[in-house]
UniProtKB/TrEMBL annotation:
PANTHER family (alphabetical): PERIPLASMIC PROTEIN, PERIPLASMIC PROTEIN-RELATED
Name assigned to this protein: Uncharacterized protein YecT (DUF1311 family)
Protein's UniProt keywords contain Signal: yes
Domain Lysozyme inhibitor LprI-like N-terminal: 28-120
Keywords, comma-separated and alphabetical: Signal
Superkingdom of source: Bacteria
Keyword Lipid biosynthesis: no
Record's signal peptide: 1-24
InterPro entries: LprI-like_N
Length: 140
């Protein structure tokens, strides 16, 4: 009986947490104000960037014994990040004239380009041995 009451009390106390999580998801799906849209776009970019960084770490790990290829990866990724950020700044427009939608436009652009780069990385991580344009060795 105590276990049942304890479990029921835990569920009752935790219910607001579940509602809060559901409400946050609804806020993004039905965002009505610019601040919420900006926040949701930022969260999308953060999620994409986290996945990209994990794939990057996997690739770097596979290249740990090949200093030349690892340097090329680092150089390519730095150049790609610079391109992504410059392209998205361009898409967002000058900060002084773009208005309140600029953070959302920039974050959406960053998320989109980051997801495209992630697809490239996933291709590198799963390409078949002998494919000439695959710079990443197969997992061991």
């Amino acid at each position: 009986m105590r276990l049942l009451l304890s479990s029921l009390a835990t569920l009752i106390l935790a219910a607001p947490l579940f509602v809060g999580a559901a409400r946050a998801a609804d806020d993004c799906a039905n965002a009505q104000d610019q601040a919420t849209m900006d926040e949701c776009a930022g969260k999308d970019f953060d999620a994409a960037d986290k996945k990209l960084n994990e794939a990057y770490r996997q690739i770097a790990g596979r290249l740990k014994d090949n200093a030349g290829s690892k340097k090329l990866l680092v150089d390519a990724q730095r150049a790609w990040v610079a391109f992504r950020d410059a392209e998205c700044a361009f898409q967002g427009g000058p900060p002084e004239t773009a208005g309140s939608v600029r953070p959302m436009v920039v974050a959406n652009c960053q998320a989109g380009l980051t997801n495209l780069r992630l697809k490239d990385f996933q291709g590198y991580l799963h390409c078949e041995e002998g494919v000439l344009d695959c710079p990443v060795p197969a997992a061991q």
